[in-house]
Amino acid sequence: MGSVRCSSFVKINAAAATLLLSLHLLLSSPTAAIDDEETIISRFQAYLRINTSHPSPNYREAADFLVDQARSIGLWYQTVEFAEGKLRQYLEAVRRLKASRFQPLRSIYISFVPDEEIGGNDGAALFVNSTLFSNMNVGIALDEGMANPGETYRPFYGERSPWWLVINATGEPGHGSGLYDNSAAENLQKSLEAMRRFRASQFDLVKSGNRSEGEVVSVNLAFLKAGTPTPTGFVMNTQPSEALAGFDIRVPPTADPDSLDRRIEEEWAPTSRNMTSWFELKVPVRDKFGRPMATRTDGSDPWWTMLEEAVTQAGEKLGRPEIFPASTDARYFREQGVPAIGFSPMANTPILLHDHNEFLNRQVYLRGIDVYEKIIKAYASYAEHTSY
Ligand SMILES: *[C@@H]1O[C@H](CO)[C@@H](O)[C@H](O)[C@H]1NC(C)=O
Ligand SMILES: *[C@@H]1O[C@H](CO)[C@@H](O)[C@H](O)[C@H]1NC(C)=O
Ligand SMILES: *[C@@H]1O[C@H](CO)[C@@H](O)[C@H](O)[C@H]1NC(C)=O
Ligand SMILES: *[C@@H]1O[C@H](CO)[C@@H](O)[C@H](O)[C@H]1NC(C)=O
Ligand SMILES: *[C@@H]1O[C@H](CO)[C@@H](O)[C@H](O)[C@H]1NC(C)=O
Questions:
Q1: Is position 354 annotated in a ligand binding site?
Q2: Where along the chain is the active site annotated (predicted)?
Q3: Global pTM?
Q4: Which residue, 57, 193, 341, 349, shows the most beta carbons closer than 10 Å to its own?
């Protein structure tokens, strides 16, 4: 069980679990007995009972629990000050594989890292940057996906990168009654109009059913700022010399980030219109080798084929591969060029991320363990070298 250095205890509820498979030989150690369903469910319940609510979350107990579990099935682990995985199913699946005396060709690492919900800067981002991680030589990573009220599992092969853009328009200030060219507000309005057209063209692709929402660039206005405030509102007879607008842009890995950069420079915030722009946040759309951060999901990718086969073997179905609508830790692995699939074996389950009384039916939980067992077995038996 590989894990991460972290300087302090952190959120447990929202932490992410990732499964990593790499190319080293795992030494087999003592096997555990095969457990019945009640035992498996009780272990999950015991884990859920650990109170990790704020303001005084009991992270130590949760961490100790996971370490105990790892130890009880003879897993090597590296400690850490760390957190949950809502997918304790990885551990249960590995427990079963050990019980069946399965001999993997690859190492299986289960990492529990904190902070996924708040960007992962002190979690997965640090982890993928460590020599611990590079020495693992990871071939494939599995990260969280999403529940599905329908019957299939939803696999995610990429996610949209947030670009938070601010544009700043300047122009001659003037009296509110004056008509003249190139005021800050006029310059900004030209940008807003161009951006609105672009947004509509992307949205049309979704409306026509040609693209899913995750596959288009979304551009949404986050703020507008201009004018001279007074205690009760704004000065009404002045045209301001500066006008700012902020946008939340989400860029799918299938888009060309260079052409979007050009569009911003030439159409949305051109210096010819006395405008400047900057990013409050700009998550890369390409990996460190300059390739789109999307994991292949066709016959050309052995990891994808194995995943499909394992799920089918378990008597379940995978849905169409999708772009995750928000952010997960998988992007940190993809950024390193490691293929990563976001995947939670939770079918017939409402999407209750972060909701009150989020629940998981016991049969769905147990089914998920079967599915992971098949996937991990297939992945860990794959002998061929894959390089990224
Ligand atoms: C869990 O801990 C929080 C404080 O961190 C407390 O408010 C809450 O009542 C506890 N819940 C249970 C079920 O003990
Ligand atoms: C990762 O490592 C590089 C080079 O050592 C460093 O510049 C960067 O800040 C590190 N990133 C994180 C998130 O620690
Ligand atoms: C907007 O641009 C003008 C002109 O370059 C500059 O003086 C002003 O500080 C900028 N505003 C912000 C919020 O950066
Ligand atoms: C949708 O895609 C089809 C096939 O690629 C194309 O013929 C059609 O014009 C597209 N429709 C829109 C609205 O883009
Ligand atoms: C840009 O600013 C310069 C200097 O203030 C001004 O002469 C010019 O008209 C402005 N152009 C536009 C398009 O706002």
A1: yes
A2: 116 (proton acceptor)
A3: 0.74
A4: 341
Q: Rounded distance, CA 221 to CA 200, Å?
A: 13
Q: For ligand 5, what atom is nearest to the CA of residue 171? A: 14
185 band by pLDDT with thresholds 50, 70 and 90? very high
Pairing assessment for the beta strands 174-175 and 242-251 based on DSSP bridges? unpaired
135: which residues sit within 8 A by CB, 6+ positions away?
Answer: none
> 42-64: per-residue pLDDT in tens?
888 888 888 877 677 777 787 78
Q: What share of the chain is helix, strand, coil (3-state, %, to 5)?
A: 35, 20, 45
* pLDDT recorded at residue 17: 57
Q: Judge if the beta carbon of residue 129 lies within 6 A of ligand 2.
A: yes
Ordered DSSP codes for 207-232: HTTSS-GGGS-EEEEEEEEES-EETT
Contact at 8 Å (CB) between 90 and 17?
yes
What mean pLDDT do residues 7-17 have?
32
What's the pLDDT tens digit per position in 65-94?
888 888 888 777 665 443 333 457 888 888
116 is catalytic: yes
Task: Report the C-alpha gap between 264 and 328 in whole angstroms.
Answer: 26
> What residue's CA is closest to ligand 4, atom 5?
210
Q: Which domains does the chain have, with CATH numbers?
A: 16-155+297-380 (3.40.630.10), 161-282 (3.30.70.360)
> How buried is 288 (Cβ within 10 angstroms: 0-12 exposed, 13-18 middle, 19+ buried)?
exposed
**Closest ligand to the CA of 275:** 3
Q: From atom 12 of ligand 1, which residue's Cα is the shortest distance away?
A: 51
